[in-house]
Amino acid sequence: MPIDANSLGKLLDDYWPTLVEWVGGARDGAEDVVQSAFIKLASEDPPPGNPVAWLFTVSKRLAINEQLSRTKRRLRESRVGRNRAESTVRVTAFEIRDLLCSLEEREREIVIARIWGGLTFDEIATACADSKATIWRSYQSGISKLKSAYGELKDD
């Protein structure tokens, strides 16, 4: 029996923003990727034992696939002479977004998954297909950089 509507709704309410940040934040397609992950979760029969960790893992894999597709599409378009000027404008409303954006992508993902996603280092390691030790080191490095950047921000 698939996941019930109330549980799915609670997961949406609790984890949507965190998952969007996890897969790329303001980048194009992040919300579409997370929506696809929730659709996949709704059709899982039986539902996964830990739906939160499952959502992080599936969202990450879908984001990677989306990025690969986007890269292939850009290469095809450039070959046929349809180069498109791409610009990404990021307008952030909160200082925390600026601080997170200052991290390397891997560190940002791990910090978001740990702090806002509530995942354990084991769950993050599984979602990222990496060792727990590597995930822990990246997390510590990211937190250290955030603390340093926040101190500089306060001093301004």
Topology:
Layout: H1 5-23, H2 30-43, H3 51-79, H4 95-101, H5 105-115, H6 121-128, H7 132-155
Labels describing this entry:
156 residues, mainly alpha, 2 domains, globular
Domains, number: 2
H/E series: HHHHHHH
What is the number of E strands? 0
Beta-strand content bin: under 5%
Which CATH architecture of the largest domain would you pick? Orthogonal Bundle
Shape: globular
- Measured distance between first and last alpha carbons: 55 Å
CATH topology of the largest domain: Rna Polymerase Sigma Factor, Chain: A
Calculate the mean pLDDT score and round it. Answer: 82
Q: Specify the number of helices.
A: 7
Question: Percent of residues in helical segments?
Answer: over 70%
| Rg of Cα set | 17 Å
Structural category is: mainly alpha
CATH class of the largest domain equals: Mainly Alpha
Structure notes:
The chain is mostly helical and 156 residues long. It folds into 2 domains: 1-90, Rna Polymerase Sigma Factor, Chain: A (Orthogonal Bundle), CATH 1.10.1740; 92-156, Winged helix-like DNA-binding domain superfamily/Winged helix DNA-binding domain (Arc Repressor Mutant, subunit A). The protein has 7 helices and no strands. Helix 2 packs across helix 3 (51-79) and helix 3 (51-79) runs parallel beside helix 6 (121-128). The termini are far apart.
